Amino acid sequence: MEKLEIIDLHASVGGTQILRGANLEIRRGESLALLGPNGHGKSTLLGLIMGNPRYRLDSGKIILDGEDITSLSADERSKRGLFLAMQNPSEIPGLNSADFLKAMMNAHRQKKISLLEFYRAMNGAYEKMGIPLEMSKRNLNEGFSGGEKKRNEILQMLLLNPSFAMLDEIDSGLDVDAINVVAKAINEEAAKGTSFLIVSHYARLYNLLKPTRAAIMINGRIVVDGDASLIQRVDREGYEWIKRELGIEIEKEIAPAMNQVSIGVCATKEAANNGSK
What span, in angstroms and rounded, lies between the C-alpha atoms of 41 and 57? Predict the structure, then answer.
């Protein structure tokens, strides 16, 4: 990926308008921290970029390297190098983790991966993320702790090697040691040129990742786009200065509560089944 452009996005969830003209541009190798109060559209923006059908695009465009991908499905966007580590990964009963990972990798390849190559890649990813390889025999995320689910999301990122990765509160549910493991893996991918869009409410993750830029989303729009010093200011002062300096009234949460932001259990099973044929 050389450049991703978000142009005047308006989007709704369950009949409620969440995004109200969001504009953003991310270039190759950039790491952007996306800040903002709860319920103001950050997860909606990430889900919309990824093509989650639960979000309805009302208007606007998503341009990847000059190509309008607005109408593409999530799997087609994934094949173009986009990846989303979800805030609430779904548990998928009946879908073996290793089978899913193999199908996921095959879906991004013209020639199916050999068993030996897959085992080496999977073993290396599990080792890097500090996850016992035995967990690959369990159903996807079923019975996993919150922290295990989040590390499993980053494990998938390592196996897919995307050019642009979005991380939606990847640090929630992680203890200090796990955050360090996750941050190390993310930093290694960033050093290879991967671009990141990172949502978190905690400066501790950003301190480890050292984003190159930061943007603030209020009321479904990007209202400030600047350098990483914005992170420290928000950590110190919250968002009240937005109203004081920019004259923007900060609404209460505008997004409806959503316990699941996954593209769908059935869709995941179908993709795994198709990829294993």
Answer: 13
Do residues 40 and 238 touch, judged by C-beta distance below 8 A? no
pTM across the whole model: 0.90
pLDDT in tens, 210-254: 999 999 999 999 999 999 999 999 999 999 999 999 999 999 888
DSSP letter assigned to residue 136: G
Q: How many CA atoms within 13 Å lie on the side-chain side of 171?
A: 19
Residues 6+ apart with CB under 8 A from 15: none
**Residues 146 and 173: beta-carbon distance below 8 Å:** yes
Q: Residue 213: which residues within 8 A CB-CB, separation 6 or more?
A: 30, 31, 32, 33, 225, 226, 227, 228
Torsion sign over Cα 5, 199, 104, 178: positive
Question: Residue 77 is encoded by which pair of tokens?
Answer: 């966007």
Residue with tokens 């208007």: 59
CB neighbour burial string for 96-133, b if at least 16 within 10 angstroms, e if fewer: bbbbbbbbbbbbbeeebbeeeebeebbeebbebbebee
Q: How far is CA 119 from the centre of its chain?
A: 25
